[in-house]
Amino acid sequence: LHPIHRLLSCPGTVATDVRREEQSFGSAETGSEDRTLKRFSEVQKERREQAQRTVLIHCPNKISEKKFLKYLSQHGPISNHFFYESIIDDQLNILLKEFQLTEENTRLRYLTCSLIEDVAAAYFPDCAVRPFGSSVNGFGKLGCDLDMFLDLDEIGKSDAHKTSGNFLMEFQVKNVASERIATQKILSVIGECLDHFGPGCVGVQKILNARCPLVRFSHQASGFQCDLTTNNRIALKSSELLYIYGAVDPRVRALVFTIRCWARAHSLTSSIPGAWITNFSLTMMVIFFLQRRSPPILPTLDYLKTLADAEDKCIIEGHNCTFICDLNRIKPSENAETLELLLKEFFEFFGNFSFNKNSINIRQGKEQNKPESSPLHIQNPFETSLNISKNVSQSQLQKFVDLARESAWILEQEDKDHPSSNQLWGLATLLLPSVAKSMSHTKKKKKPASERIKNLLESIRSSSTENSKNTVGK
Ligand code: GTP
Ligand code: MG
């Protein structure tokens, strides 16, 4: 290739290392066996030569990488290639990497459940304590609470237990007026036990009159804020469904994390219960939006049900919660839209959604007429007569819509007017409330960039400390 073709370009590019002859960069580059360290001048020379054999090509988003490389290789062998995503796509993926649960944190969550299980086993041998919610559904952010489910259904099922001795001890919930009362009694004794004897369990609160009764406590050794429930098997199934949606396409988790961060930065969500949108509802909105793309990025829940086989069948309290569990049998989407485009379209979509008429329905993957008058209606995917966002007030919904419109507008401007180096750009413009305001009204009176970046970092830092503190008050 003639040097004139080694064009410098912007995001959405592919860089290829076209080698005319086989060159070895030696083991120093791969850091293996041979400990010969390269001189500075050698590295410089090699890198310069490498640069001369490299081209940077701007290509359309929807390109087939395989075909493109095949085409290019007609002009010379390609030793190496890198596809770059757009700047915003990279930022979304970085945000995901920085905030997602780490391997150690995930292990600590399962360990904490296992420790609580030991305590609960004093009353209910063979019970299981399982994590659910964002600790396991793929959308958990470092610092999120640990939702636990005390599973009593396994009791008596284990053969090992039955054959381990001559006696079998049976447990029985004595006659109580309702399942709810039984749940309250079970949680009440476990709460007492954790409070008096649970190692490292502090601040135990029994919140037994809530819609879903729970025991809340801090587990000091792990630092987690824990919510223990029982008789909440549907929530476990919801976690599995979200896990599947997050796993079938790599864009889903990055988009959900970004929307959650955006909502948090603008105080649309809070860790205190109230009239605001919850992270769970936001996740459902992203899933719904991705089902509405053309071609769809995510399948509908009804479709996942049609893929299910006999062993996937699951009915909980009369609700059909069946869907395919083997995610390898879900075909990948043919939609190749970038995260940047999806983010912008998400804001457009919900900035113009007819919330007054329509309900968000991930089971059917299309809007339905709203069955009741709550400002925001998101159908509970399994208990279909319920609305998971019944708590959201009209003013909170309006705030969401206004911010979505504003954010769509900001991303639109970014496209037109590529940012200059002294301005905030990309995701930062969406996460800093003061910047969002100043950009939407007038470009006058801007603070110096250095001060705005300082503010942004402060706001990210304080929102993460606030987050860890907030889990205490949740
Ligand atoms: P964060 O804790 O905010 O990171 O997200 P989360 O998904 O864990 O939410 P939360 O702790 O509030 O709730 C835990 C789980 O309970 C969720 O993942 C859902 O499965 C379920 N859940 C929460 N809110 C509702 C609701 O309003 N309706 C229903 N049906 N389930 C809910
Ligand atoms: Mg949670």
Automatic annotation (TrEMBL):
The keyword Zinc does not apply. Residues 438-474 are annotated as: Disordered. InterPro entries: MTPAP-like_central, NT_sf, PAP_assoc, RL. The keyword Isomerase does not apply. GO terms for biological process: RNA 3'-end processing. Residues 460-474 have a biased composition (Polar residues). Residues 40-86 form the RL domain. Residues 88-246 form the Poly(A) RNA polymerase mitochondrial-like central palm domain. This is Poly(A) RNA polymerase, mitochondrial isoform X2. It comes from Pteropus vampyrus. The lineage of its organism: Eukaryota, Metazoa, Chordata, Craniata, Vertebrata. The gene is MTPAP.
